[in-house]
Amino acid sequence: MGSLDSSEEVRHVLILGLGNPLLGDEGIGVQVAEELKGLELPDGVTVVEGGTAGLGLIGLMEGYQRVIIVDAVDMGHPPGRVVRFTPSEAQFKTTEAPLSLHQIGLGEVLALAKALEVAPAELAIIGIQPNRVEGGIGLSPEVEGVIPQIIRIILDELDAR
Predict the structure, then answer these.
(1) For residues 91 and 82, is the Cβ–Cβ distance under 8 A?
(2) Residue 105 burial (CB count, 10 A)
(3) Can you tell me whether residue 142 is helix, strand or coil?
(4) Which phi-psi region, left, alpha or beta, contains residue 76 (left: φ > 0; alpha: ψ -120 to 50)?
(5) Each residue of 112-134: pLDDT tens digit?
(6) What domains can be seen in the chain, in order of their start residue?
(7) Listed residue (132, 113, 137) closest to 123, CA to CA
């Protein structure tokens, strides 16, 4: 009696690749999501290319126990540096005056998800220091070169549960 039927079952893990592939290294999250879709992942793991969904990310995350976000993050590190952190460890720069809903930053989205009580119980962000964020398709060699490392971090994260 206590178990949920399959239609109410909690979806387990969402891996969300964020970014805009038209802006150079800003597309790293989407590229990692594409690579992960080609791998055999454990049951209950969903991979989504979130693009630049802004507030739409709240709906994408809803219902998942764990969310792993992969995104280009300017942390002041050398290009290609990969850092795993949680929202509580991050200091998000909030946008002074967002020009559109798509430009609402990850910090605002996560704060709103928490306020609406739809934030996942566990959230990890895998940030990659970009080399260049400008018009143009394709990743810089420094960022493209760390894709295997990012995938290893994600697979380790999945195995740890």
Answers:
(1) no
(2) 14
(3) helix
(4) left
(5) 777 767 778 888 889 899 998 78
(6) 10-159 (3.40.50.1450)
(7) 113
130-150 pLDDT tens trace: 998 787 889 999 999 999 999
Helix (H, G, I), strand (E, B) or coil at 48: strand
Nearest to 143 by CA among 36, 47, 31, 53: 31
pLDDT for the residue 97: 45
68 pLDDT higher than 50:
yes
Q: Which of 5, 10, 27 is CA-nearest to residue 61? A: 10
SS3 75: coil
Q: Report the 10 Å Cβ neighbour count for 106.
A: 20
Structure tokens at 149: 């490392």
